[in-house]
Amino acid sequence: MFKFIMRLLKFLGEYSHRVKLAFVLSFFENMLKFVPIFVAWYLFTNILSNTATLNDAWISGVAISASLLIRCLLQRGFLRLQGTSGVEFTARERIAIGDRFKRFPMSFFNEGNLGNVTSVVTVDMTFIEETGISALHKVVNGLIAILFGSVILVVIDWRIGLVSIATFAASQLVFQWFQKLGKEQSKIRQRQQASLVAAVVEYIRGLPIIKSFNMAGDKAKTVKDAIEKTRYHAINFEEKAVPPLSLYMDCFAIGTALTVLLVTSFGFYGSMELSVMLMFLIFIFYIYAPVKALGVQSAIMRVMEAAMDRYEALQKVPIIDEKGQDIKLNRFDIEFKDVTFSYEKTETLKDISFKVPEKSMTALVGASGSGKTTIANLIMRFWDVQHGEVLVGGVNVKQMTCDSLLKNVSVVFQKVYLFNDTVLNNIKFGKPDATFDEVVEAAKKARCHEFITLLPDGYDTMVGEGGSTLSGGEKQRISIARAILKDAPIILLDEATASVDPDNEKHIQMAISELVKNKTLVVIAHRLSTIRSADQILVIDEGRLIQKGTHAELMEQDGQYRHLWEKRMTARGWRITSEDEK
């Protein structure tokens, strides 16, 4: 337990001095609990010797009242210190781990870690904040009671002191058993909790697909199984915890019964003063109470220890820009030099080299899965290449911090995500310190100002999680507005008009025209007609660069680009026909 407390203090860092001060206040508060007992001993002694006076009663009353008042002040002090330390510490760590997340390689979030990450940030940190740290004074009180209680009893009467020492020793042997069990079970509990969170998150995120294929019952079985396993482990822990916990409590019951038996016997046979006997009969019920509570708090400490283990493991995940430097770029061209990359074992990109000149438009063309999106991800350093170099402004992205790289890049994804916040704040995500006038100007350029003013609260309208209250085209234009507001010199565009209706496509194309002025533009092309004016078109096939040139140059070649163009033109004339038209 001492080892855990020292670990916790180290874990709290700069907030540990508050907790240490809380320990001191808790110590004195715990000591003052014995004042009424010693006052009672004083009164019993005077009453039994027929020397008690009214003055003794006044002294006793003042002493007890003063001790209670001081205890209230001390208790308020240490609870406040512990409580504020927990709240401020977890707030700081949530922000810190959130900042760390954006510097993790994206592969970390594709390895089944979603449930684990969610549990750490929500369940574990909340447990530390609300339960773990606030239980510390009970642990300290229990440890103090063992030490000072034994000393006081030995000083007053060594025979009763030996009984208490034997009781504490027996209880601590059982306590170690309980500690070992709690440590094993808390880790199982944490793993199962992460699995449950992951199952629930996956089910909720995939609910539209599940419902559309009428598989709600089948997929619900996954969540049900996770819930059942959580229930099983919880009951299993309770069943395993009952024997040691019961035996732990039995140690104090036996110790209390034996103490009562001995002190009454000593008092009856005259080997103990009657006043001391009466004091012991009261004292014995006080001294064991905090130590008995230590057994319950032990389970909390074990869960907290497992939470700390999981949080510290998350802190040890290597960050992608650990050796990066804050570099200010002077130019904004992009170059891939002999780049080979694989997500796992299969190579996604194979020895690719190309240059994107500054303030030019480069389009990436190819079948689904050919590696177009991977190229965009490597420019943003969501992953690092295994071989070759990715250069931005002549600097290898591995030499840069993520912040110094990404402040120069704006991305417009085909699938837009808006945060559960106001329209204003979603646009300001591109530039948090922007004024309202700057936001409106960006919205006008993105052709979304008009529909925003028609929303119930205008720019202060909440858009719902993921932008659920807006249409796909409206979300797309808001995402372009925040990219315009950021005004980064490099634009990565996963063609935004690929899945919108013609009316929205017109507005979005106009918005994109505003966005890309005088920028280095890389477009992942879905509609070939939108890239005819590109300065260069890169044709990617199975991770290799197989063609490069302008639209006119590539159309003169008998290659994949011309075949894709011809297929696209044929597809434009496709329509559904009735049986009569055949």
Structure report:
The chain has 582 residues and is an alpha/beta fold. The chain has helices at 2-12, 16-32, 35-48, 54-101, 114-132, 136-156, 158-205, 207-212, 216-268, 274-287, 289-315, 372-379, 402-406, 423-428, 436-445, 449-453, 472-486, 502-515, 551-555, 560-572, and strands at residues 334-342, 347-356, 361-365, 387-392, 395-396, 409-412, 490-494, 520-524, 536-541, 544-549. 32% of the residues are buried. The model has no long low-confidence stretch (mean pLDDT 81).
Classify the fold: give the CATH topology of the largest domain. Answer: ABC transporter transmembrane region fold
Q: What portion of the residues fall into strands of 2 or more residues?
A: 5-15%
Indicate the low-confidence ranges by residue numbers: none
- Under CATH, the homologous superfamily of the largest domain reads ABC transporter type 1, transmembrane domain
CATH first level of the largest domain: Mainly Alpha
Q: Mean pLDDT, rounded to whole units?
A: 81
End-to-end gap: 83 Å
Question: Reading side by side through the largest sheet, how are the strands ordered?
Answer: 6-7-8-3-9-10
- How many β-strand stretches? 10
Number of domains: 2
What's the story with the biggest beta sheet? 6 strands, mixed
CATH architecture of the largest domain: Up-down Bundle
Indicate the structural class. alpha/beta
Computed over alpha carbons, the radius of gyration is 35 Å
Which geometry do the CA atoms define? Answer: elongated
